[in-house]
Amino acid sequence: RPSYECEHTELKCIGRGNFGSAFLVKRKSDGEKYVAKKIALGKLPEKEQQSALMEVELLKHLDHPNIVDYYGSYIEEGVLIIIMEYCDVGDLSYHINKKKKAGENFTEDEILNWFVQISMALEYIHGRKVLHRDIKASNIFLTGNNTVKLGDFGISRVLENTSDAAQTCVGTPYYLSPEVCKNNPYTYKSDVWALGCVLYELCCLEHAFSADNLLGLAYKIVQETHSPIPDRYSEDLQKIVEMLLVKDSNERPLVSQLLMTPFITEKMKEFI
Ligand code: ADP
Ligand code: MG
Predict the structure, then answer these.
(1) From CA 176, how far away is CA 183, in angstroms rounded?
(2) What are the residue boundaries of the Protein kinase domain, all occurrences included (predicted)?
């Protein structure tokens, strides 16, 4: 048996998301802490359970400083268990809420530093033909040295047909892109839209689009213009937000194009 598969003590449940629950676990051999994501595959036929496992196993081979490390996955009694790096400084949604409560804002440098890191992670996975499909503030983690890491990529495709997906649709899908609202396929550009939503949230400390029901939300995403970001931020930053939150996906850049815009290229040199 691979070492990640055995001898873990469950410390606590750290949260429940759209797809299953996350647990903090401790490896008995050396006390190292990990996160175990548990997803009930329930009624999926055996063959599809195995292909879900294969799909997730592929993610192990992705290796980037701004991506949460995957260590392995296995199925135990119809539950898919994914062992990954534990990020102990909290996710961006936690930090955004904290700032908001304190009545403060992130500085432009903080925002751009994180944004550039997330964009590079996204370029890396897109370059390997992997869609993230669930980019949002709670899937981006802060770690030491102001490093941010993108987590939970690629999982949602595996999970679309699991029993968990339907049952635990807990969150409001604030990051849905206009094309997906209109029932068009999810593409790389849809990840870019979600990236834009995260950037917007870092600037405004609130969602670019929000409503208390799905229909209202989808309407706003497709039809309405978001409020502008505060003018304490530079015009260049405002332009990046506008560029990402373009409704027509054909007009929206790929991440690789985003990283080639002079303003972002400059920032990459400055931060990395
Ligand atoms: P969601 O992403 O929909 O909020 P998750 O099941 O992915 O739901 O996560 C639930 C909670 O667990 C979130 O608060 C998230 O911050 C936390 N979490 C998930 N993965 C990790 C991780 N690798 N390290 C630390 N915390 C994590
Ligand atoms: Mg998550």
Answers:
(1) 11
(2) 8-264
Give DSSP secondary structure letters for 213-235: SHHHHHHHHHHPPPPPPPTTS-H
Residue 167's alpha-carbon distances to 16, 19, 85, in angstroms, are: 12, 9, 26
Given CA atoms 235, 241, 247, 252 in this order, what sign does their dihedral have?
Answer: positive
Please check if 38 is assigned to a binding site.
Answer: yes
Per-residue pLDDT of 226-271, as tens digits, reads: 999 999 999 999 999 999 999 999 999 999 999 999 999 999 888 7
Of the candidates 226, 222, 223, 220, the residue with the CA atom closest to the CA atom of residue 196: 226
Rounded distance, CA 182 to CA 219, Å?
A: 10
Give pLDDT, residue 58.
80
Residue 216: partners with Cβ closer than 8 Å, 6 or more residues away: none
Q: How far is residue 89 CA from its own chain's centroid?
A: 16
Active-site residue (options: 134, 152, 164, 191)? 134
Compute the chain's Rg from CA coordinates: 19
Residue 67 DSSP symbol: B
Give ligand 1 pocket residues (Cβ under 6 A).
14-15, 17-18, 21-22, 35, 68, 84-87, 91, 138-139, 141, 151-152, 171
C-alpha span between 190 and 193 (Å, rounded): 5
Nearest ligand 1 atom, CA 17: 8
Cβ 20 vs Cβ 164: under 8 Å:
yes
Residues in the chain predicted with pLDDT less than 70, given as ranges, are: 1-6, 18, 154, 156-171, 272
Q: Rounded to the nearest whole angstrom, what is the distance from the C-alpha of residue 75 to the centroid of ligand 2? A: 19
